[in-house]
Write a structure and sequence with these properties.
The complex is a heterotrimer.
Chain A (H helix, E strand, L loop, with lengths): L11 E7 L7 E4 L3 E2 L6 E7 L4 E5 L2 E2 L6 E7 L5 E7 L2 E6 L2 E2 L6 E7 L6 E7 L2 E6 L2 E2 L7 E6 L6 E6 L8 H6 L2 E5 L2 E2 L6 E7 L6 E8 L2 E6 L2 E2 L6 E2 L3 E2 L6 E7 L2 E6 L2 E2 L7 E7 L6 E8 L2 E6 L2 E2 L6 E7 L6 E7 L2 E6 L2 E2 L6 E2 L3 E2 L6 E7 L2 E6 L2 E2 L6 E7 L5 E8 L2 E8 L6
Antiparallel strand pairs in A: 1-43, 2-4, 3-4, 4-5, 5-6, 7-8, 8-9, 9-10, 11-12, 12-13, 13-14, 15-16, 16-17, 17-18, 19-20, 20-21, 21-22, 23-25, 24-25, 25-26, 26-27, 28-29, 29-30, 30-31, 32-33, 33-34, 34-35, 36-38, 37-38, 38-39, 39-40, 41-42, 42-43
Chain B lengths: L1 H8 L1 H28 L1 H5 L3 H12 L5 H5 L1 H20 L1 H11 L8 H24 L1 H4 L4 H21 L5 H21 L4 H19 L6
Helix pairs in contact in B: 1-2, 1-11, 2-11, 4-12, 6-8, 8-10, 10-11
Chain C lengths: L15 H8 L3 H15 L2 H9 L11 H5 L8 H7 L1 H6 L6 H13 L17 H15 L4 H13 L7 H18 L14 E4 L3 H4 L2 H14 L3 E2 L12 H4 L2 H17 L4 E4 L4 H14 L8 E3 H10 L13 E3 L3 H4 L5 H11 L30 H6 L2 H10 L3 E3 L3 H13 L5 E3 L1 H8 L6
Parallel strand pairs in C: 1-2, 1-3, 3-4, 5-6, 6-7
Helix pairs in contact in C: 1-7, 7-8, 10-12, 12-22, 14-15, 16-18, 18-22
The chains are: A mainly beta, B mainly alpha, C mainly alpha.
Chain lengths: ~425, ~220, ~450
């Protein structure tokens, strides 16, 4: 994902790297990943001596590894990859592996500012997380649903706190899972724990829990809501951290509940991905008001226009506007404030608002090529496939990264007045 | 006996037709409303093309595999339903009765043919009875109501046949014929005979699911 | 004379899951749960089906259990309805725990939900739907077979069927990639490749027991030059035993994870391995539970994908398999998607001769493993094997030594049947034969 801040916004285009020819001693280069400012591009390089490394802007990391996968830039621009050395796995940051190694590592998680990195780890068939090269003190028989707090200082996962033998259904029903924050499990177990979410101040943790085989609810810091439901979906804290909202299923339909109480009145065929506007004043969710008809609802009021699928919803930074990707009859479009763009595409990536909220842009696929579309118009200058984009902080320019053949191109362009 | 005849062919007949028509409309409407509320998929996936495709394949003798596997049952079933519906509609006595009462008529079947069709219905009922008694897979799921319904269906045809040929007491047979006919009509919406009302819907739905969703045949 | 709703003789079976659930039941709880269930979760369909069924027994010949048990009517589809849902409705749930135990046994282990009987009922009554209702009620009563429930527990805890932990999944893929790379230089199993055309999804047993299938799929994808990926997160498993245990809430969770993983990776379509029930879950069951009329991302079964690769020339066949084969039609992709002819075209391209079983295509007999029955485990193995003598006869009559079955459950079921009835036959996936017979430009 590209970021708008601390970036060179001079209009123009430059070739960052060329991946077309791997070069002598390299068997192949894998898919490229751009840094948030678009100034670097990295890919796994498979070397002819049966080792792997990461190639950044044409330069290999000094160390080669047995295996490398999952190359990703942290939001602060550091380059990470999962690497194996001497049969042990760890995370390498800018070519430098962590000191701690594990039997397996996966799913690196980055704090919003990129300053902290967490990693799912397994050693000796015990599971947990490691943050900034420090593994949890206790590992568990299983850990999943890993999450990193917004400030990047705390980690949590659903953990199996007790051994479970083969087909021990009675024990499973009694509950062998809990949520652990920084390796410290909640005081009680549940049948299942899913969808962990930290509060914005990183102090509290909410999760979906199954308290009994047919009863689900939301637990906050281990304390379940007073009533249970047939099913629940992911909890979300309000921006002020004071309340938790979650979709709950009752009476054959889904409603939005807050802190264990009915919050929205309407019952939907489906309701999920609820999100607060940044100012916390509004809540939007992807909803299915009638079987097969999907749209967004804002504060329990669904938009009129419905689609076969709605996904990737996002508020504008000021919370005034809302956009999502939507499809009908296999063609995708962008839905903004209840109205679809006039054009449809083979695919649409998550729409993004400009900082001032006036523009919406999204990557779209047309005739097999990935392009950048702004407010319903495809920006036609682009060659090759656009891989990512970001608005400048003043909303006047747009940065995009493209792959044209093997050429990795960074482009900054001014948004036309006509579209302003 | 005349008063009884007047009653069963007058007010009772009106009541029976009323219950049949009203009951049928009510059941279909109630079912549609219930389905709209509880079984939205039925309407969502209904496809006219595949509904008709399925209905066609099951309305023509021997167009389905199961019909071909059981030729006797297939012949009997089709003849039974054909005669069951056509003979009461086109038997001369019924046509004349309508003409006398309401002043309109339609072509009638020759008496001998109608007679034969009546016997086909009765014979088919006997066949179904024999089947229920002798075939394990039918007997296993047969309850008293299944026999009662069979008797209910056979009764108007047996009594009609007896009345037409003036066997036994004509007046009594006539009254019994009318009463049993009315009983059968009333039973259609409220018993398992309601398959007459619902079969097109069940076929249309499964035909739509098989055809439009699962791209497969259902016959 | 058979008394209504009674059951014919069955050998007693000890299943700890059923026993555990039954021990907690009281007639009051059964009645209350059943009444609430009938009110909340059934409607016009059930009522019309029960009213419309004239108890003619014409569905009987459709059922392989019935045919395999010398036409014992308690195994007929309508007989199973009579022993279960009909009585529950008639008595408004006032039944004994013993009745529920028996109903659970009928619904979970004596019906594969193969839907063949719908093709034999003159009214097109969806009997599998009604048996599914019985399972749903049994789930609500907590009466589920032990091994099926354990599989469902795995689904709930890991979002896959086989208790595969997150790292084990990735490790299995990387292991198979490494193995395959020894044979095919440059081969990759691209993980988490956002924007790829295809997400390839499999069922839990593939990374656990049948890793060669992942190997083969990778070789086929490589040879076809496919732009594909596999997720390194939960959501990779397309299977769904919750659909069969009656835990529809969990089914929804599994399908949501699967589809949202594909949407996160922004693929154009999901290609799934040779599994039948997963296709059913994705194509017209789980998606509907979530409110999607169709699929939010198009999904095709391996049979369709192989057909596409062969007809487009992306994969070329270098040699034929060395003997004649027969083709088993899995219910969930043949009655469930009409892929019988497509499967045959692929099979014929790979083999010298295809000897048909009779009946075939939509009318083929079930493997007797599907519908979650094989997942009910050892206690009911004999139920499955003795319940499908007819399939053994059908297989034997072909006289060939290889049966192709493009479905995992069918493999498990046919394997047991072939073993039990001492048929000298091998079972193959289409992928096995493609891998064996295709042109390998790197060789």
């Amino acid at each position: 994902m590209l970021h708008g801040h601390e970036t060179d916004w001079e209009v123009g285009e430059r070739k960052i790297a060329d991946l077309a020819a791997p070069g002598e001693g390299t068997d192949w280069l894998e898919e490229p990943h751009f840094s948030p400012d678009g100034m670097s591009v990295a890919a796994v390089a498979k070397l002819s001596d049966d080792t792997c490394t990461v190639r950044v802007n044409g330069e290999d990391w000094p160390t080669a590894f047995e295996k490398v996968w999952h190359v990703r830039f942290s939001p602060d621009g550091r380059l990470t990859a999962l690497v194996q050395q001497d049969g042990e796995w760890t995370l390498a940051v800018d070519g430098e592996p962590w000191e701690n190694t594990f039997e397996f590592v996966w799913n690196p998680l980055f704090s919003a500012d990129g300053a902290h990195i967490a990693l799912c780890v397994q050693s000796g068939a015990r599971y947990g997380l490691a943050v900034d090269d420090t593994p949890w003190e206790t590992l568990f028989a299983n850990a999943n649903n890993a999450t990193l707090s917004p400030d990047g200082r705390r980690t949590a996962a659903a953990v199996q706190t007790e051994p479970l033998g083969q087909a021990e259904i009675e024990k499973f029903e009694a509950g062998v899972f809990s949520a652990a924050v920084d390796a410290e499990p909640w005081s009680r177990n549940f049948v299942n724990v899913w969808s962990l979410a930290f509060s914005p101040d990183s102090a509290r943790l909410a999760a979906e829990v199954r308290t009994a085989p047919r009863e689900c609810t939301i637990a906050v810091d281990g304390a379940p809501w007073a009533r249970t439901y047939a099913s629940v979906w992911e909890p979300r804290f309000s921006p002020d951290g004071k309340s938790v909202v979650a979709p709950v299923r009752q009476g054959g339909g889904w409603i939005l509940a807050r802190d264990g109480q009915k919050f929205w009145d309407a019952s939907y065929v489906q309701l999920w991905h609820q999100m607060f506007s940044p100012d916390g004043k509004r809540i939007a969710a992807i909803v299915c008001p009638r079987f097969g008809r999907w749209t967004m609802a804002v504060d329990d009021r669904p938009w009129k226009e419905t689609f076969d699928v709605v996904t990737d919803a996002a508020f504008s930074p000021d919370g005034a506007r809302l956009a999502a990707a939507a499809a009908r009859d296999g063609r995708w479009t962008v839905l903004v404030d209840g109205h679809a763009w006039g054009r449809s595409f083979e695919r649409v990536w998550p729409p993004v608002f400009s900082p001032d909220g006036r523009h919406v842009a999204a990557l779209v696929e047309e005739d097999g090529r990935r392009r950048l579309a702004l407010d319903g118009n495809v920006l036609s200058q682009a060659r090759g496939d656009v891989l990512g984009f970001a608005f400048s902080p003043d909303g006047a320019k747009i940065l995009s990264t493209c792959l044209d053949g093997g050429a990795c191109i960074r482009r900054v362009e001014r948004l036309g007045n006509g579209r302003g | 006996m005349h008063d009884v005849y007047q009653f069963v062919s007058g007010p009772l007949a009106w009541a029976a037709f009323g219950l049949f028509v009203g009951g049928s409309l009510y059941r279909i409407a109630a079912m549609i409303l219930l389905a709209r509320r509880k079984d939205v998929q039925v309407f969502e996936y209904m496809s006219l093309r595949y509904a008709l495709r399925s209905i066609l394949h099951w309305s023509v003798p021997f167009m389905s595999v199961n019909m071909r596997q059981r030729p006797v049952m297939t012949v009997v079933t089709f003849l039974f339903h054909l005669c069951l519906i056509l003979s009461p509609l086109f038997v001369l006595g019924h046509v004349v009765m309508f003409d006398t009462s309401f002043g309109f008529s339609w072509p009638a079947l020759p008496d001998q043919l109608a007679d034969a069709m009546t016997l086909v219905v009765v014979a088919a009922c006997l066949f179904f009875l024999g089947r229920r008694l002798s075939l394990a897979e039918a007997q296993y799921v047969t309850s008293f109501s299944d026999y009662a319904i069979l008797a209910l269906v056979a009764a108007p045809f047996i009594t009609g046949f007896l009345a037409y040929h003036q066997f036994l007491d004509y007046q009594l047979m006539l009254v019994l014929h009318i009463v049993s006919g009315e009983a059968m009509l009333v039973a259609i919406p409220f018993t398992r005979l309601s398959h007459m009302l619902f079969a097109p819907f069940t076929r249309a739905y499964i035909g739509s699911e098989f055809g439009a969703v699962r791209h497969a045949r259902d016959w | 004379m058979y008394s209504n709703g009674s059951t014919m003789t069955r050998e007693p079976v000890q299943d700890d899951g059923l026993a555990l659930g039954l021990a907690r039941l009281t007639p009051e709880r059964i009645a209350a749960t059943t009444q609430a269930f009938l009110k909340e979760e059934t409607g016009a369909r059930l009522q019309v089906y029960l009213d419309t069924c004239v108890h003619c027994g014409l569905c009987s010949e459709a059922c392989h259990y019935y045919l395999s048990h010398d036409k014992d009517p308690s195994y007929s589809p309508v007989g199973k309805v009579n022993q279960t849902i009909l009585q529950l409705v008639k008595k408004n749930g006032r039944v004994s725990p013993e009745f529920i135990g028996q109903a659970a046994r009928v619904a979970y282990t004596e019906c594969n939900l193969c839907r063949r009987c719908s093709m034999y009922c003159p009214f097109g009554i969806d009997i599998a739907y009604m048996v599914g209702l019985v399972r749903r009620l049994c789930f609500k009563l907590g009466v589920t077979p032990k091994y099926l429930q354990d599989t469902v527990n795995s689904h709930s805890a890991t979002l896959n069927q086989m208790w595969v932990r997150e790292d084990e999944w990735i490790d299995s893929l990387q292991w198979q990639e490494g193995e395959a790379r020894d044979e095919v230089p440059g081969l990759r199993i691209p993980l988490e490749k956002e924007g790829a055309e295809i997400m390839y999804s499999v069922i839990g047993p593939e990374p656990k027991f049948r890793t060669q299938l992942i190997y083969q799929a990778a070789v086929i994808m490589h040879a076809a030059g496919a732009d594909w990926t596999m997720p390194a997160t939960p959501g990779w498993d397309n299977s769904d035993m919750a659909m069969y245990s009656g835990d529809y809430e969990l089914m929804g969770r599994l399908k949501r994870a699967h589809f949202e993983t594909a949407m996160r990776l922004k693929v154009k379509r999901i290609v799934m391995g040779e599994c039948g029930h997963a296709f059913r879950s994705i194509h017209d069951v789980g998606n509907r539970w979530l409110g999607w009329r169709d699929r939010p991302i198009p999904v095709i079964h391996a049979v369709q994908y192989y057909h596409e690769l062969l007809t487009s020339g992306k994969i070329r066949i270098a040699k034929k398999y060395d003997e004649a084969v027969t083709f088993h039609d899995p219910c969930n992709i043949v009655r469930g998607m009409g892929l019988g002819d497509m499967g045959r075209e692929v099979a014929k391209a790979l083999t010298p001769e295809l000897v048909e079983m009779h009946p075939n295509r939509e009318h083929n007999y079930c493997c007797c493993a599907g519908g979650g029955v094989i997942n009910c485990g050892p206690p009911f193995r004999n139920t499955r094997v003795s319940g499908n003598k007819i399939k053994a006869e059908q297989l034997a009559a072909t006289g060939v030594k290889t049966v192709i079955a493009p479905c995992h459950n069918c493999h498990g079921g046919l394997e047991d049947i072939i073993h039990h009835y001492k048929l000298d036959m091998k079972i193959k996936f289409l992928g096995d034969l493609i891998y064996e017979c295709m042109e390998k430009p790197w060789e």
